[in-house]
Amino acid sequence: MVADVIPRPTILVFDSGLGGLTVLREIVGVRPGARCVYVADDAYFPYGNHSEAEIVARVVPLIGRLIAAHAPDLVVIACNTASTLVLADLRAAYAVPFVGTVPAIKPACARSRSKRVSVLGTKGTVAREYTQTLIRDFAQGCEVALVGAPRLAALAEAALAGEAVSDAEIAAEIAPCFVDGDARTDTVVLACTHYPLLLDRLTALAPWPVEWIDPAPAIARRVVALLRAAPVGASAPPAELSFTSGRPRTELRPRLAPFLGGTAVAEAAPGRFDTPCLSP
Ligand code: DGL
Question: pTM for the complete prediction?
Answer without folding.
Answer: 0.91
